[in-house]
Amino acid sequence: GQNIDQPTEMTATEGAIVQINCTYQTSGFNGLFWYQQHAGEAPTFLSYNVLDGLEEKGRFSSFLSRSKGYSYLLLKELQMKDSASYLCAVTAPPGGGNKLTFGTGTQLKVEL
Amino acid sequence: DTEVTQTPKHLVMGMTNKKSLKCEQHMGHRAMYWYKQKAKKPPELMFVYSYEKLSINESVPSRFSPECPNSSLLNLHLHALQPEDSALYLCASSQRLAGGREQYFGPGTRLTVT
Known about the structure:
Chain A is mainly beta. Chain A has strands at 3-5, 9-13, 18-25, 31-37, 44-49, 53-57, 60-65, 70-75, 84-91, 100-102, 106-111. Chain A is globular, with a radius of gyration of 14 Å. Chain B has strands spanning 4-7, 10-13, 18-25, 31-37, 44-50, 53-57, 64-70, 73-79, 87-94, 104-105, 109-113. Classes of the chains: A mainly beta, B mainly beta. The A-B interface holds A 30-31, 33, 41-45, 48, 50, 87, 89, 91, 95-105 and B 4, 31, 41-45, 48, 50, 55-56, 90, 94, 96-108.
């Protein structure tokens, strides 16, 4: 089975840096995605990691350690519009490489 | 065009009704997905189509019937639903089913079963 854990809620200040952690236990691993979802809207793709290390994309970075079953999403220079739910999702067998299993999501609130 | 469209945006149906949700993409993607999302929960995979063939059915009750008439369209036919089926239904697509392909999500259909 798949088990993917994230903190339920986080609060941070505008302009600050926040790290959202994700731990997973899956039978097999084909990659890890991070998605952002604003209330009432569709999830949008943020990042993808399949090898260990850090992937940087503007204000967002994502890290993966396969041996530890651990990933984090780092958001820098926080803006109010970053208030959203952040979903960690793992692709793993069986069922195809792109079958996403989502974690519970982390609701991030950015305050002034 | 990186858009996945879904119609209708909102749907209210009785337990004896038959309705359909529609999803469309013109990105040339050959994998399409249906997800169900309850409030404050993550999306849960229901069905996956690859090259217009059903690839994954996550043990979804038969009152949900997917259809992929061509590579751009994905339907979800609904019949005899229960109030607990009320949720946001999301469609997504990706280039292929193989791993590492970003999935593009549509805005969803918010379904209420009365």
